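<context>
A single protein, sequence plus fold
<entry> Chain with its tokenised backbone below
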Amino acid sequence: MPSGSILMNFENTRAEMEKTIGAKNLQSVNLWICPPVENFDKIINQGCENTLSDFNAFFTKDVHIAIKDGYHPYRVILCRVVLGREGRDYVVKYGKYLLKKVCAIPAFIVTFTVCIDEVVARSSVAQKDEVYEQLINNSHLAVSKENLVVDLGDEKPLTQSNSKPMSQPSSQPVTPQKTMKLEGQKFCDNCGELCPASSKFCGSCGHKF
């Protein structure tokens, strides 16, 4: 989740925009995007302003649409955006938001979720739609431990879980899986996942190094 200082800056920026543009012309929304691999890494390490300024990306309120239309389906980003003026700062087409100049949207917070399912990453393009449908029908997106829980305010949750109750744990001992640390990598202090040494955020839980 974003730090307190980022959240405070987000609200301060919105307050300033309300004075200049007017509160009725502003709205804060949660939007999903599934960008190319190189853009995903740059967003996490450098932020959206330096990454998406020339990238005409469609954002959507529906995570399933973002995944289906995305570039690499096992990583999606949830963005908290203050929209400016419709027609100038953004347009809406077919239920999707096109932020014309992302760097011109001054309050833009990113939190993200990864590794929705390994089967998606291994699937061919021809199999992609079938895999997405299975994930959606099984409410896998809602129950995945990798998904971040965010405060949506008055908005309805993006996904609902229809999963079956978890089975009782087996009495047999479980052997912990060992992860070999390679040069140029480091472990996240928050979740223990292995991350590139140059990363500023953990790819699994979003923890800032």
